[in-house]
Amino acid sequence: QDAIDRKERRSETFKTAVHGLETGNPALKTEELGRRAPQWVRDNLVTMCMRCKEPFNAIMRRRHHCRACGYVVCARCSDYKAELQYDGNRLNRVCQECYVFLTGHVVLEDREGKHKGILEKGAAEVSGRSLLCSSLQLLDKNGKGGTRGWFVIPRDDPLVLYIYAAPQDVRAHTSIPLLGYQVRDLPQSDSRHIFQLAQSRQVYTFVADTEELKQRWMRAVARAAAGITHPEEGEDADS
């Protein structure tokens, strides 16, 4: 019964698998898993395994694709084989979750059931129900260099800004509680659309791709900083 319950829970997760954020991938229906070839999540949209959340690197942890769901996973999480109907029932490399779903076999090393940490919210899932999400650049302290990432203010956690390295990552690498911050509009410099968040000695400097996007972020962050949790009238999530 425990195995049946776990299989049913996994079935629910596949109903929204491979969400089409910035990929154009249609959702993969549960009943189509293994019967239809998935569209793979692009390598450059993730920086960590979409199952175990460990970061990829060039030597010890390389990228692989599950042939059933199309997720980008590490070697350890894709060390399973299952027959796929769309490939003539030949054995293909699949992730642990797809292996259990397709074969019904129970894997003893099961990560399910562990409490999700505050950062363990998938970018695609959170972005699909966000107040605002887009790519931004976060500048370093000297303002010369910086890191581009995927930034999200979730509807169910509207006072926090989550920062992902890529828009399909399954774990945020950091978060910023927005309550109490001041929003500063900086003049355009070298065609860069810049704004800041400041509180005491802590200052974050962001660069948006357009002036319109910058203004939207400033409005959203100002509302969060003031403790306003409900969306503006007519406001829709960006994706």
UniProtKB/TrEMBL annotation:
Record localization: Cytoplasm, Cytoskeleton
Domain (FYVE-type) ranges: 43-103
UniProt keyword Zinc present: yes
Record-annotated membrane-spanning stretches: none
Keyword list, A-Z: Cytoplasm, Cytoskeleton, Guanine-nucleotide releasing factor, Metal-binding, Phosphoprotein, Repeat, Zinc, Zinc-finger
A single GO cellular-component term on record: cytoplasm
Domain PH: 129-226
Database matches in Pfam families: FYVE (PF01363), PH (PF00169)
GO biological process, one term: filopodium assembly
Phosphoprotein recorded as keyword: yes
GO MF annotations in UniProt: guanyl-nucleotide exchange factor activity; zinc ion binding
Domain of life: Eukaryota
InterPro entries hit by this protein: FGD1-4_PH2, FYVE_RhoGEF_PH, PH-like_dom_sf, PH_domain, Znf_FYVE, Znf_FYVE-rel, Znf_FYVE_PHD, Znf_RING/FYVE/PHD
Family matches, as PANTHER family: FACIOGENITAL DYSPLASIA PROTEIN (PTHR12673), FYVE, RHOGEF AND PH DOMAIN-CONTAINING PROTEIN 2 (PTHR12673:SF82)
Name of protein: FGD2 protein
Organism, as annotated: Pelecanoides urinatrix
Organism classification: Eukaryota, Metazoa, Chordata, Craniata, Vertebrata
Recorded name of the encoding gene: Fgd2_1
